[in-house]
Amino acid sequence: MLLRCLAEYADRAEGLPPAYYRTKTIQWVLQVEADGTTARLHAQRRAKGSKEKPLQTLAPDMYRSGKTPPPYLLVDTAQFVLGVPKTAADGTVSDTAIQEAERRRDEYAALLLSWAAEVPEDPGVQAVATFVSCGGLGRMKPPEGMAHSDNIAVMSPDSRWLHSLASAQKAWASWVRNRKADGGARDVCLVCEQEGELLATIPESVNAGAIPTSGQSRKAQLVSINAAAHGRGGVVQLVNTPICELCGSRSMAALNLLLADDRHRRRTAESVTVWWTREPADPLFDALDHPTEETVARLVDSLHTCPDPITAERLDPNGYYALTLALNNARVAVLDWLNTTVGRLRNHLGAWFEDHKVFDGWSGSYRYLPLWHLVLASGRWDDKAGKYAPRSAPRGLEDELLHAALTRGPMPARLLPHLLQRIRADRRIDAPRTALLRLALHPNRTDKEQTGPMPCLDDANQEPGYLCGRAFAVLEAIQRSALPEINATIGDKFFGTAMTAPAAVLTNLRNGANGHLKRLRRDKKGTYYALDARLADSFAALARIEGGIPVLLNTRQQAWFVLGYEQQRAADNAARAAHKAAQERKLAEADRSEAPTTPA
To answer: Global pTM?
Structure first.
């Protein structure tokens, strides 16, 4: 199914390269003179630190491995074109390396001459053929600084890229097919379900650097069965996976095209996700990392209009595909494969934003967080730098959150205990961490009938942990109001203990709050009456809990504690902001009423 969807995308994709051609960086250009007797090398390597773009071109390519890899047509490394031997780590060149470089140069020359024989009418091609057949490649002295891995492209006397000729593209594709075909075997292809010539191996690989990795970047195979333990029945290669040449080449060309397009990929530290649709559609994926007010509003409205994912799928059945890949040495690891519809995905993304939005008390509005910010907030907070430490999030969590967003699935089980541990250690609770708590506490995101925690303060919520968190926030607000210049609040000292063992902490803090309330009653009567009533309501709600204030809270109840604490603080901030705005309006109205009127 995966290769079939990629092959279908290749049928309508713009910018698909010729068969078995990939973009390569050229370090040297070999230009033959018109008489075919001599040639010149033009350096194209950019200086280190230069902002000038390197010379790149679509050139013949194929996955090659083993001790005697084959050459590419016209564009290859200096080891193949000029026979430059590979240098050992100690700087020496062995006789074996020299012999291998000569073998590769001879095979390169033979392949080039076999193609040139099919283009007798082109004088530029024949000039190159004359130069190669007379041993010109062997006579050329590699210039200083040329490495064996530098790419060299051959140019005609009239400055044409020979590998861009239609004859070269046709000859290269035919040569690759003959080399990669399964001995001429023909059968029904699993991808297109048509009879055709089958491949022994996938000819093309995923380009080096297309998939992020912490190790060495290299080309990799999407389908690799080169050991008996890998295949069914102990057979290797594609014997049990019949794929025709056309489907194999076009699906890999489409995948590399997607991997190179910023509009169709999302990279993390060690994985990449590409997405595409069966028919052209609006880009929905970008909303995850760049949630604009307009885009989110459309998704949420769509969710409210059609909350059932099945119905949403019927309304827009256009296919939507997402593929997450990682690198395992020279093999591609498929971490996730999503085959859904645009309608269902729109429903899932609307639910994602609805399930994690957070009320901002200072602005009095709701916030929707980008996925990258949620991932960052699961890491360590660096108090000195005033930001989250890069690459401190749990490994693989970003891919898990992405899967949950696209499928409306549950949060990973490890998220909640890890997040609580980070909150205890960092004493940092902000919008992205509150959003993660809302997602983790949702009872069942796949069920459209069930709802998660409210995005703002929920007076009807009777969860013991939630009530304890609200009470702790009120106690902290009382202390801050009575002692505005205090350096360490009860939140700094007792928050970690209160979220795990609230009974003892809340009881002691309640007794200690009496002194703060007395001060407020003397100095700030309005604040005193508001906070005293709020404190009374909080402990009245705790008194109604069966068994009283909990002695210990489990992991989920601790999450409710943090959520109740933060939502109570947001509500308090909103109340203060509203009170301040009302006071400012009164003063402005008083100033206008006292202003002298100008006589007519």
So the answer is: 0.84
